[in-house]
Amino acid sequence: MRTLVSESRQTQRDALPRLGYGAANVGNLFRPLSDDESWEILTAAWEAGIRYFDTAPHYGLGLSEQRLGAFLRTKPRDEYVLSTKVGRLLRPNPDDDGSLDLAHDFHVPTTLRREWDFSAEGIRASLDESRERLGIERIDIAYLHDPERHDLDLALAEALPALVELHANGDVGAVGVGSMVSEALAAAVQAAPLDIVMIAGRFTLLEQPAAREVLPACRARGTGVVAASVFNSGLLASAHPTRDGRYEYGSLPDALWDRLQQIVAVCDAHGVPLPAAAVQFPLREASVRSVVVGGSRPAHVRQSAEWMALPVPDALWDDLSDRGLIDA
Question: Is 59 a catalytic residue?
Answer without folding.
Answer: yes
